[in-house]
Amino acid sequence: MRVDNGRTKAGDLVIRKVDLDHTQLRLRSAVEQRNRLGHGIVLSTYTGGNPAHTCLEVFYPKVGKIYDIAESLMEVISEGR
Fold this sequence. Notes:
17% helix; 40% strand
């Protein structure tokens, strides 16, 4: 369930979105990432890539690592303050 306030921001709690409309390979990858990494906390947002799109820097406490990912691949499960 996405909390829709327009944009993801630092402090939001997020998890990898599982989109059933994707190909089997992408679906499998999304499920694997969601299970392995669990939820994460957004540290920052920035514009990157080609074409330019919003990216998130996310800390995953379950694995103790930080990863960057496209905002469109994530869903907000709780808004930060």
